[in-house]
Design a protein that fits this description.
By secondary structure, the protein is an all-alpha fold. Helix content is 63%, strand content 0%. It is built from 23 helices and no strands.
Length: 385
């Protein structure tokens, strides 16, 4: 039996023959055969007595001829040679007991080679098989090839297809004609460019595995519920939020914002600009409201129009930057009076260039404190004590 991956995997210990399992096929010997098969699995497949006694495994047909190539000896030996450990084998044997009687040369090796040609080997290959053993039992080699050809064509490369399979291990089990192609067609029908669609699916290949009816409902709700037109650059982000939350959780998020004084129109204004804001926690919303509305006096409408402010880290960005901004204002060192949104949203390098480095000599303690990220608004600190 050849070892298919050159990754240092050693062959398994020779297995005991199945002569003890060759029994006349009759009802009177069925229970004896079952007990012998359990003992065989415990001895040769490293299964516990309890695992070998599960109903699924006891239904595996008893081998009538030990010389046949599809007896459990060959299959167990093959699966262990490609790297399955005992716990993985036990899981597969219980979920797909018929796999133990697969034909190694005719069925298993051709499918494994398809996965290897994709670039999966070693632990990556084992992870895909252990997570979805039906690839070896319920999906034909030709079906695997067709799905991989489709994935490579829409994702742009073998590498992207391989990464997609690693991220969404059920991807190759989904029907090509009933699931994968319809979902891609639905997303394409909303006018999403090939480049943006490719980026979306490389990062989130699971969208291709979903029920097409559910995908279509989610796309419709992005327009009808979130109010984001398909032409908007935010449409795909809205789709990801809709898929992530679902309708019930989406309703709960709207209710959460309303508890803090937001109107539905405020929420929709925010969503059209940055749908991801619907994923923030109530704790983060409360912190943002306390700081921007209660402390600084901004209106909710300002936050709705500048939702990025709610996504930024309070301790990591907002408080240190506001403390710098406040010191510079008090000392009248600013030539212009930038908006709070500008101060908070620009990149770190731009913030340093505009508000910290120019005053390094005049206010060295300010630079040192900010560089160490220890600078916070004193009034906020007092409020925490």
């Amino acid at each position: 039996m050849p070892i298919l991956c050159s990754n240092g995997i050693q062959g398994s210990t020779p297995l005991l023959p199945l002569r003890t399992l060759v029994l006349p096929h009759s009802a009177s010997t069925a229970s004896i055969a079952s007990d012998l098969f359990k003992g065989y699995l415990v001895k040769n497949a490293a299964l516990s007595r309890g695992a070998a006694s599960t109903p699924t495994l006891t239904k595996v047909p008893v081998c009538k001829s030990p010389e046949k190539k599809n007896n459990p000896n060959s299959t167990i030996d093959f699966l262990k040679k490609i790297g399955l450990d005992d716990s993985q084998f036990e899981k597969i044997a219980n979920s797909r007991p018929r796999l133990l009687r697969s034909k190694v040369q005719k069925t298993l090796i051709p499918k494994i080679r398809v996965l290897q040609d994709l670039g999966l080997c070693g632990s990556e290959l084992i992870s895909v098989i252990a997570s979805n053993p039906s690839l070896l039992t319920s999906v034909s080699r030709n079906s695997l090839l067709a799905k991989l050809d489709f994935l490579k064509s829409i994702l742009g490369s073998v590498e992207n297809a391989r990464n997609a399979v690693k991220k969404a291990k059920w991807l190759l089990h989904a029907s090509l004609t009933n699931t994968l192609q319809p979902n891609f067609g639905l997303l394409k029908s909303y006018g999403i460019s090939d480049e943006r669609l490719q980026k979306l699916l490389v990062k989130n290949p699971r969208y291709l595995c979903c029920n097409p009816k559910w995908v279509q409902e989610s796309l419709v709700r992005v327009e009808q519920v979130l109010g984001i037109p398909r032409q908007s650059a935010m449409f795909l982000y809205g789709f990801k939020v809709m898929v992530s939350l679902g309708m019930r959780n989406l309703e709960l998020k709207f209710e959460m914002f309303k508890r803090y004084g937001w109107s539905e129109s405020d929420v929709l204004v925010m969503v059209k600009r940055l749908p991801q804001c619907l994923t923030i926690s109530e704790a983060r919303l409360k912190t943002g409201m306390d700081f921007f509305v209660n402390k600084l006096g901004y209106e909710i409408g300002y936050l709705a129009a500048h939702p990025t402010l709610l996504m930024l880290s309070m301790e990591g960005r907002i408080l240190p930057r506001y403390a710098v901004f406040q010191v510079l204002q008090e000392k009248e060192l600013l030539r212009r009076n930038p908006s709070i949104y500008t101060v908070m949203s620009i990149s770190e390098s731009r913030f340093l260039d505009a508000y910290v480095l120019p005053f390094k000599d005049e206010l060295p303690e300010l630079y040192e404190a900010y560089a160490g990220k220890k600078l916070v608004d004193s009034s906020v600190q007092k409020g925490k004590q």
